[in-house]
Amino acid sequence: FPVAPEKEDEGKNINLVETYLQNFYNLQKDHRPHLRQGGKNHLAEKLKEMQEFFGLQVTGKPDRDTLEMMNKPRCGVPDVEQYV
Amino acid sequence: FTPGNPKWKKNNLTYRIVNYTTKMRQTDVDEAIQKALKVWSSVTPLTFQKTEDKIADIMISFAYRDHNDNSPFDGPNGLLAHAFQPGEGLGGDVHLDEEETWTKDGRGYNLFIVVAHELGHSLGLSHSNDPGALMYPNYAYTDPKEFLLPQDDIDGIQAIYGQSDDAVQPTGPTTPQVCDPNLTFDAITTLRGEMIFFKGRYMLRKHPERSETELNFISLFWPNLPSGIQAAYENIERDEVLLFKEDKYWVIRGYDIVRGYPKPIYRLGFPKTVKRVNAAYNDETTGKTYFFVADRYWRYDENKKSMDHGYPRKIIHDFGKIGRVDAAFQKDGYVYFFHKTTQFQFDPRAKRIVSHMKSISWFNC
Predict the structure, then answer these.
(1) Greater confidence, B174 or A41?
(2) Is residue B153 exposed (0-12), middle (13-18) or buried (19+ Cβ within 10 Å)?
(3) Could you say which of A55, A69, A73 has the minimum Cβ distance to residue B80?
(4) What are residue B264's DSSP bridge partners?
(5) Do B2 and A82 count as a contact with CB atoms less than 8 A apart?
(6) ipTM
(7) How far away is chain B from the Cα of A75, in angstroms, using its nearest Cα?
(8) Are B241 and B234 a contacting pair, CB within 8 Å?
(9) Phi, psi for residue B100 in degrees, rounded to 5
(10) B315-338 pLDDT, tens per residue?
(11) What's chain B's average pLDDT?
């Protein structure tokens, strides 16, 4: 059965999620930390978009299935927006 | 489709292999790329001419990390390759991460599969959310010898460039939909408490504790297995699953294929007249395995490792009107026979059919 992620894993997971959504779902890289809190909802929206695309349960949360999907080797072209 | 619907304004395109990976022989790289181009040329009016020196429409190269296109690679795994939509300059070009283990088989990453996918982008396609499509974003190995361009990709590319000039229009496989009432199965088995339903190159995996059903390529777990498995059963006592296709069978112990397989089914005692097995199940209480072939069935004694005398017998005599058996498995003392979209629940103690359901009844539709 799934084991609850350790604290360290959580940090790693957040990085994975943000990088994945920046690479493939056009999540803007906002470099102003205080916006990061506000950005979290935006991140949840992007996460839902990714979960919908892959037919996962749309939770807006980086659950186990979502992280598993993000760890799969894949093409570098984004799943949404124009790749220029 | 890629936003803005970019497409090449001409059908006769050129390509050039700018450099080669060190992981494969150059002739194997050439062959993989030619086969990948043919995937698209065989379903559209497009043609691809190789050029050695001048600038081609599609420039194919292997690159490391940051390679000056604002999209750096990330070393082994992760990002495998990318390509650019039709257009001048970078447009149409395919970049492959040189730090991947490129191969021409199931090890590492199959170059043919990845290049075929990236060429879809070079021609104007975006990603598909059909898990069976070539344009699905995640890597999934398929034996190149068995590869057929799925219908989802054919529909996409023909919407951009039109149909091929062939008299007979090519069609491709579709991805099974779990709750499709017309879904039938090639074979079904239990596997360490889960249920595995085989359909073409796919397996639907149902864990009793999870509501969703997982759809995977058979090759994801067993790259050396063919698609189109025809029969399967689990011998729980031996922790083995036996898989059958045509006159051969494989043994999986735990989750790994046992070395030395496939072997001829005749080793199990079938006569040479039997060319394939339609379905099988193992009765864990008696240790007997039942094999269904056309309208007859054999019974195999797992302890004696031989077929019981007095077989084959007519299916209808001992199991009733269940027709040709596509797939069968035993669970919780009942045997479930699948015939097209119908499933019969058979009680071996009462020796009669006690209920029948739709074939997709296990999937919480």
Answers:
(1) B174
(2) buried
(3) A73
(4) B248
(5) yes
(6) 0.83
(7) 5
(8) yes
(9) -85, 160
(10) 999 999 999 999 999 999 999 999
(11) 95
